[in-house]
Amino acid sequence: MGDLVLLESEVSPVLGKLQEGGIEQTALHNHLQHESPRVMYMHIGGRGTPARLAAAVHAALTLTTTPFGAPSAAPPGGSLGIDTAQIAQILGYHVYQVGVPRAEKITADGIDVPPSMGLATAINFQPTGGGKAAITGDFVLIGNEVNPVIRALRDNGIAVTALHSHMLTDSPHLFFMHYWANDDALKLAHGLRAALDKMNVKKAG
Question: From the DSSP assignment, how many helices (H) and strands (E) are in the chain?
């Protein structure tokens, strides 16, 4: 389970190759608006031996400009230019990148799906200078949380960029709401906290 980040021109050939390899598509959508180049997110799911699944995904990725090889080196340590300690205090979770799991058990086809498989609300901060940060990610919501979270985000200057499902047989059925803003980092942290307060999430330990 996961998603592939693709250029628009890569969507059709990748979809065909995944279908040939027995990997199913569960969603295809944007996460952002006005990005360049335009990218799409293809969510996938499959069952079988790890080697077969890996080979099928690799065959699809060879049709893209996705770089293979060792990941780039981590950025050097030091100040990020935003007050990550205070942001963590506001959110109740540590940042620079945060995954906030839901409190209830999620299943798909009767199998427990852990938060680590993309079912935790994702919060990402990228410093942009002068105490500001760009934020993006997605909230993982049940139906009656969608509009309260929309209102909380908009009340705090955070744009909603997409709303969709990622899975076909999940229970309870989840909606994934993507967002974007570039503003004072602490202001944005308060806005994200206001949205989290509208959800059934696990308490930070």
Answer: 5, 11
